[in-house]
Protein 1
Amino acid sequence: MSSGPDVGDLAPDFTLPGVQRRLEGGHERRDYTLSSYRGQKVVLAFYPGDFTPGCTKQMCTYRDNFDEFQGVAATVLGISPQDVDSHERWIEKQGFQFPLLADTEKEVAQLYGIAAPLVGVKRSIFLVDTDGVIRYRYSGTVKAIFKTPKSLAGILGGLD
């Protein structure tokens, strides 16, 4: 397991299948490629699992305070090892307004140095600036310890 990219490094590009709730109802499944977000600030929110207590707390906090991310023009991408079907059910239950991406083979988790035995991925945040450079990195434990939207927005607000 590698240590992955650090602050100041270009964020490794990837493409993963994912799903997002449509404003008009239903869901949209498609592939998401990180480099297609160049020119935008991106929050990569890696989490261990759909429907788990800690991850539900984290992602619902992001949902309930989504205006913090919108206020700094940031795109949130949730990433975990579950498949798109699981993500779609979780979005339906929780009403997330951001896409959830499926890293079922844990290749992106390994690329970012956050793959973990048993749970598959460490709860981690990478903030990527408009040039695709990582400006903040945080890896926690499997416990429900995560950075709040307000603290992340504070960092994002200073990025180009």
Protein 2
Amino acid sequence: MQTLYREFTTQAQIDAQYNASLGLSDPAAPGKHYVAQSALARATLQHTLAVPYGPTLQETLDIFPADAPNAPVFVFIHGGYWRALSSKEFSGVALGLQRRGITTVVVNYALCPFVSMDEITRQVRAAVAWTVRNIAQYGGDPQRVAVGGHSAGGHLTAMCLQTEWARDYGLAQDPIKAALCLSGLYDIAPLRYSYLQPMIQLDEGVIRRNSPAFLARPSATPTWFTWGGAETTEFARQAQIMHTAWQAQGNTGELRAVEGANHFTVLAGFEQPEGELCQWLAAQLGL
């Protein structure tokens, strides 16, 4: 029998690996949790919403400043498989970080199929560049900017790590102090054969340009590639191949799962200041 990707011969097999909602007793529960945590963050933390970083209406940032001036910064890129959700469902990532003294910037971007994955990657890179150039106006330290994301946001974080920042943006070549890739997709080829294809519209060119596992460059940015210990084997494999490619360039990378977490609860480490994700970022940012 002909295979679609690696050992997978049917779309159902690929969907079983990559549709993280299939194993949930209540598929709506993660979204409800994210919305509730985001409402709590906006009700209790100082913030400035919908700050433009680019020319289109979707190119905005939500900024949750730390209390102290010149604070380190974390730029968070949300998931949703490039075709769903927005920054507003992920204000909750600021809850633990703000109490650790970290300013949080949550990126909004346009979605497939209205724009291509190439354009989403361009927008997210522009958001990071804007943050480095402008975050001092919001009390952030442009010399201590970390970037991270979840699921599709993990992929987009890895794409940011491949950016030629000096050549394309006039910034330092490695302006990102640390990176945190959560349950990311780094070889996007299998998704062409998944339930996502009608929305994300992958072809060979898009796959080649947007699979960071095959694009790694030398970088001074220490990076943690992680996933939920209760996720499927493909999410673990995705992290492993990216980590291998990253280290092959002589870069500093950590490969370690968040034990017991599924694809959605892996984000819980941002909700309390003692959470594993908050602690890792605080250490990398010198807190």
Protein 3
Amino acid sequence: MTYSDYRKVFKQLKAKPPKLQKYIKNNAPKPRKYGRFTKKCKRCGRPGGHIGKYNLDLCRTCFREIAISLGFKKYS
């Protein structure tokens, strides 16, 4: 189904709230238990490039922006 088809379905089901709730219940994405998308950045929500060491839970770009304020030093 394309995006426009989903919009059509929601437009039709807005008049029927019980059917809309059933549609959302059966078609909602399942919660992730493992894999790349289970851990997301606390700051921006990006799932890729995740740094979990020291319980940082940041993506690499956010880590680069705030690393000095966290007390990390850049060696080079």
